[in-house]
Amino acid sequence: MARVALMPARQYLEECFTSPEMRSLMAFFAMQTKTSLDQPGSAFGMVELPWSHAGGVTRARGGMSAVCDAIVRALEESGGTVLRDSHVGEVIIRGGCAVGVRTADGQEIGARRAVISAVSPVRTFTRLIDPDQLDPAFLRRVRSIQIDNTGVIKCFYALDEAPVFSESGDDGSNRGFRTAAGMLCPSVDHADTMWRYIRDRRLPTKIGWSWCTHTSTLDPSLAPAGKHTLGLHVWVPVELADGGTWDARAKETMAMRLLDEYTRCAPNVKDALIAWTARSPTDYEELMDNPNGNMNHVDYTPHQAFGFRPLPELSDYRTPIEGLYLSGAGMHPGPAVTGLPGHNTAQVVLSDLE
Ligand SMILES: Cc1cc2nc3c(=O)[nH]c(=O)nc-3n(C[C@H](O)[C@H](O)[C@H](O)COP(=O)(O)OP(=O)(O)OC[C@H]3O[C@@H](n4cnc5c(N)ncnc54)[C@H](O)[C@@H]3O)c2cc1C
């Protein structure tokens, strides 16, 4: 296991698989950690992703916002208050202790017991805390946490009919194909081309992989009667070469490249397209305030996983500021909608309050 975790994915693929289909599927898993197939440690994702999905995958009826709504309801039922559309501008620190937050519009909210930051640890220490409160050597280590130039573009398509995977013998009635999620893994060659373009900060001409979501297939409430949704996402460079920006044209280029690759499996989708929209890494940064729009808050690599996430000295969810704790995707066990970083932080806070 340790050997696999340290290996470049390509070596593992060549050692263990002969069929091109299996190699591209396993490459798909490896690339989920935002690593090319030659990076040492890139085989990590091949183990991590199937393992973390082994217990099955569930989806909230009504879409992912239903999960947030349920959490808010639970909190409010326990007497809590949730301020939506309110941005924290600063963690208030007095006498070395976190005693509250100040919102961007100047409102001060005191904390009787603890302040928990579930935004990127890098943003927490570099934007929300007065640098005079932090040891310069610690701050330097935080600033050097890896958040590379690879981001995500997610494209959303409205369809007149559900995808039919006729290239694989589907006629639209085979229940085996009517899943909410699919994995597009064209080939190892496609993956290599994609990474070359990402390294050169250009829009990939080949789609190395894509998660495909057909959520309306299982949850018709997500689309008008008879219509369907399709989501496709893939890695892209955050900053583009030659002063390029993630403007409407760049988004359209990637949205159509993704759709072209997808329609090689489900050709009916091209004529069924009603409308599309896309979120680029820049859109995600604006929307979520994660550095580089990074959905993982900090890169998820072997040197930033488990007890090293995001740094060894922060991995127990405590910080050098008394009363300030960390949570969210930047903490162990990392990204994805698991609730586990929150659970772990809660255990630490509760034990400190005892
Ligand atoms: C395209 C895409 C597809 C994905 N697919 C999957 C999937 O299939 N399965 C899966 O499990 N995961 C998936 N993920 C990953 C998953 O969405 C994230 O890992 C998860 O949302 C992390 O949750 P979080 O609460 O830690 O952080 P986030 O979801 O990043 O939430 C952080 C929140 O903090 C807010 N915030 C930031 N700064 C401040 C501030 N200063 N003050 C107040 N609020 C602030 C942000 O607006 C945001 O709402 C996907 C992500 C993306 C982008």
TrEMBL record:
It comes from the Bacteria. Residues 53-184 form the Amine oxidase domain. One of its GO terms (molecular function) is oxidoreductase activity. Probable oxidoreductase that may play a role as regulator of mitochondrial function. Interacts with COX5B; this interaction may contribute to localize PYROXD2 to the inner face of the inner mitochondrial membrane. This is Pyridine nucleotide-disulfide oxidoreductase domain-containing protein 2.
